[in-house]
Amino acid sequence: MTVRTGAWILGAGLLTGALSGIQSLDEQVRDSVQARRQAGMDRVMQGISDAARQPTVLSLLLGAAVFGGPGGLQVARSAVLALIPTNLAVEGLKRTVNRTRPDGEHERSNASFPSSHAANAAALAWILAKRWPRASALFWIAAAAVAWSRIYLNRHFLSDVLVGVIIGVASSWVMSRWAEAQAARTAMSGGNRDGSRRV
């Protein structure tokens, strides 16, 4: 056996062990949460989950763009810019991993891993917190409530939600940096056709 082959076998073994541990934790969390569900809380969690659906989010962004003045328009643009890569990553992973949902539903186009609700909520929380930093705690609490509702309603495992949050935050951060770089380039080339900086 070559060193390279041995390294591949070791890596595969470590990955298998890690995935097994994650699956075990996911199942423990699911069983614990589902054992404590209450009818009254079910309605609250369903309402939180429904409020984070794409049509509702897009309607809110449209309202911000139309009625929020220049600041509202900028927030809507930033949010759309962040949500596009977020959803591309989520949908690509859903079809690739094809994980069965904790409630037993199995459909490749609507697979469990990762959670699109959690990803979109985290992406929006990042954008909104950057625009209104004093209210950042409220935005992150709302995103956490959306993510938790997906676990509570038995639609996602813990790891689905955590990876969704990471995707949402990473996409928002990358796109924010890109937008800032574009704005800086535009400012540097300031109004002169030859690209020289205006003094």
UniProtKB/TrEMBL annotation:
It comes from the Bacteria. InterPro entries: PAP2/HPO, PAP2/HPO_sf. It comes from Eiseniibacteriota bacterium. This is Phosphatase PAP2 family protein. Keywords: Membrane, Transmembrane, Transmembrane helix. The keyword Lipid metabolism does not apply. Gene3D superfamilies: Phosphatidic acid phosphatase type 2/haloperoxidase. SMART domains: acidPPc (SM00014). Residues 76-176 form the Phosphatidic acid phosphatase type 2/haloperoxidase domain. It holds the Pfam family PAP2. PANTHER family: AT30094P, SPHINGOSINE-1-PHOSPHATE PHOSPHOHYDROLASE. The chain crosses the membrane at residues 135-151, 157-175. The keyword Transmembrane applies.
